[in-house]
Amino acid sequence: MGGRCALALAVVSALLCQVWSSGVFELKLQEFVNKKGLLGNRNCCRGGAGAPPCACRTFFRVCLKHYQASVSPEPPCTYGSAVTPVLGVDSFSLPDGAGADPAFSNPIRFPFGFTWPGTFSLIIEALHTDSPDDLATENPERLISRLATQRHLTVGEEWSQDLHSSGRTDLKYSYRFVCDEHYYGEGCSVFCRPRDDAFGHFTCGERGEKVCNPGWKGLYCTEPICLPGCDEQHGFCDRPGDCKCRVGWQGRYCDECIRYPGCLHGTCQQPWQCNCQEGWGGLFCNQDLNYCTHHKPCKNGATCTNTGQGSYTCSCRPGYTGATCELGIDECDPSPCKNGGSCTDLENSYSCTCPPGFYGKICELSAMTCADGPCFNGGRCSDSPDGGYSCRCPAGYSGFNCEKKVDYCGSSPCANGAKCVDLGDAYLCRCQVGFSGRHCDDNVDDCASSPCANGGTCRDGVNDFSCTCPPGYTGRNCSAPVSRCEHAPCHNGATCHERGHRYVCECARGYGGPNCQFLLPELPPGPAVVDLTEKLEGQGGPFPWVAVCAGVILVLMLLLGCAAMVVCIRLRLQKRRPPAEPCRGETETMNNLANCQREKDISVSVIGATQIKNTNKKADLHGDHGADKNGFKARYPVVDYNLVQDLKGDEAAVRDVHSKRDTKCQPQGSSGEEKGNPSTLRGGEASERKRPDSACSTSKDTKYQSVYVISEEKDECVIATEV
């Protein structure tokens, strides 16, 4: 049982190692010969039941380990080990591939998970077993023969043959080391698995190098080879043969930059530029600046450069100057030739032709004296102390030898197109019209005579003037008034007529208004003429005083009529209004009582002072305290009259009246009436005498007594105060 477990573990470990291996050591057992059937100790193998004597049932233990100079058969087997099942009896041959026992396959494989070192030590033991199930290798009594060797081995497909003989046994075997799939190199250390996906597009060479598929490049063949000619910086591709441009570039090969949007006549070296071509300018190169090409302003072979819209500069060749290089530089202007030498202008240079007796570049060297008579035209000669001579020329001549006649007009002294007249020893300028002065450089003021009329402003020109006219005038001298019909004020097909300083619109049929701008109802046949100016002028006449006065008078009459109506209405209302009740005014001013309304009755109701609020103390205090009490009656005659008038003295009537009017004439704020019977009044004097002692008086300390009197003839309610 233990042997089976060991075999299973060996197989599992071999499989696991094969999974992670980089190569495999293969051992092929080909033939084993044991003619006598003896063990290693020369004992005869015990055969099983029915077997001949000395029949060795042979199985093998293989141990593969690292290289050892002296091979030790003892474990550990660093590279791997294997135990075979019983493969035969005594002598037998082993075919390739799987045998009768499925647990054994020839050759025996030892997978490597690391680089093959190139050397190894191999131990092969032939063992005998009595039972196929007992494959233990620890018992030395079972050993038939042992092979222990070390070898050098290179990686390859070829088998290395070997034969081991021990005198009694022979073992023929072969071995090799091959790399696993996708492993290459001398030690099977180079891994290369062909692939064609996002992680690479390659196959593997004989030594494990990556060979890119057509159209791919790079270390792992992940970079596609773009279209031939595609710019490496500005183009890219996702598939072989493509050429996709990066932002800002275009073209089949992505070598053309994209110009600034809207750029018309410009180029670019980098994206979004707009470098204008010659003759164009502006942000979008849409402004034609090619003045040089179109007009060719520069002369004498000068180089023209555009500097802006419609502007340019000329780079002149040597010997020329001016805005357009139209002027040749006269190197003879400073008169470099001396002693009367004649100067000849050359291109960017000059040459001097010397008179007789002088030589040198500028004729500065003299070979004559006054004895030679060098002065012409009557010139006076004088010798110079330093050598040479000088001539004093008469009027009209010049030059070192007085050989030149003076040309006063040669320097063009006259300006503004004037003609120069040579007078011999002087010159005269004949000026063009509009100029004056010795050299005709003064412009004549043409505005001096004030030619502009009607307040126009004059501007002087060259032999001319111009007038800026005020509003309403036109013409060269502002003398012509502007036509009123000039701006077509009439609408809808009307005809404009000018009349003095105004215009009149002759409207077409169906239109009206000052300018014929309104559509009118149908009118009788005939044109309608509307003169707006006449209406406006009519408004400027005398003020209409008559109309204004008539309007003012009409308004005053209306106001007077309204006032009379108001007065009449108020008079009627006063006549219809009933007489005023004295009680109301008196009660409001004297006792501050509410309205007292009652029917006609002849009775006298005497109300106690404690029941009615009396505020007339102030009147007494303001008056004279020593005056008679009747003075107060004179102030209130109605009260006095009612007190002495004939009254019915029926006590019962008084009681009834008192009780009946008690609810109507009771002042606000009174708590109730006195229940005592009032005294019967039979006369005015008696009343006056007895009133202070009346039962209605509840307080003797009060100085004033209030009396409620009902008139007999009038519907009045009066509050009187008795003093």
From TrEMBL:
Segments spanning the bilayer are 545-569
The record's listing under PROSITE patterns reads: ASX_HYDROXYL, DSL, EGF_1, EGF_2, EGF_3, EGF_CA
Molecular function via GO: calcium ion binding; Notch binding; receptor ligand activity
* Signal peptide positions on this chain: 1-21
How does it sit in the bilayer?
Single-pass type I membrane protein
Where is the region Disordered? 654-703
Q: What is this protein called?
A: Delta-like protein
Q: Which InterPro entries match?
A: DSL, EGF, EGF-like_Ca-bd_dom, EGF-type_Asp/Asn_hydroxyl_site, EGF_Ca-bd_CS, Growth_fac_rcpt_cys_sf, Notch_ligand_N
Q: Which domain of life is it from?
A: Eukaryota
Give the protein's function: Putative Notch ligand involved in the mediation of Notch signaling.
Alphabetically ordered keywords of this record: Developmental protein, Differentiation, Disulfide bond, EGF-like domain, Glycoprotein, Membrane, Notch signaling pathway, Repeat, Signal, Transmembrane, Transmembrane helix, Ubl conjugation
